[in-house]
Every structure is written in C-alpha cells, then in structure tokens.
Amino acid sequence: MASKRVIKTHKAPNPVGPYNQAIAAAGEMVFASGQIAIDPSTNTLAYDGDVKKQTELVMSNLLAVLEAAGATFTDVVKTTIFLADMNDFGTVNGVYAQFFDEATAPARATVQVARLPKDVLVEIDCIAVI
User: Fold this and answer.
1) Which of 5, 57, 60, 89 could serve as 24's disulfide partner, Cβ 3.0–4.6 Å?
2) pLDDT at position 17 over 80
3) Which fold has domain 4-129?
C-alpha cells in the first residue's frame, strides 16, 4: 500500500468541505486541492468581482499549501484552472505567468465552469512532484 500524508497549513484557507488542502502520496507526489480567493487570516472571501486580485490570492494560497508539503511552484507538473467566465482567461493567464517560467511551466488545462464554490471567479489546483 502506498504511503499517504495529509498536508495542512494555517497559511492557506481551511477546507470548506470533506477534503484536505493537499495529500502527499508515496512521498513523491503532492495533490493540492483547488484554491479559491479566501483570505487565510479571516477565512472569508476576498476581492469579490476582481478576477486579477482573486487570482493573485489563489496563487498565494496554492504556494502556501505547496510549501507546507515541502514543494514550490518549480515542483508543479500539472495545474487545472477553473474559470467562471472564459473572458477572464487573459487576465488570469497574466497573473499565472508571474509564478511559472514559460520554459519549464507545468502542463495545464483551463476550463469554464457553470459555477465555483462561494461564487468566486477562479479556482486553481495542482499536482507537484517532490
């Protein structure tokens, strides 16, 4: 049976359901749950209606989860971006690009969804290898 370790940090928002911030599997892979624009210091939604600010906070929250697992963005091999409106793709992509070097950026999928938790505009999850 493969080993599994729950990753939890107070530097990112608490889960809002029956899931963990991330799971490290077999000591090599980290599966980070989707992060949304929740301020970890208050556990409340931040930047309602501002996709750029929401994306910046999502990436900050995702980094906090990765760091708790002993990883950074350079360890990320796959991300998924969920958008409430595909018209926000350019703005989200611009923020996202500040966190990943284009030459070594992870594989990625971006999809528009009907609705996201707490009616946020963006959610991002990732898989990292440590």
Assistant:
1) 5
2) no
3) 60s Ribosomal Protein L30; Chain: A; (3.30.1330)
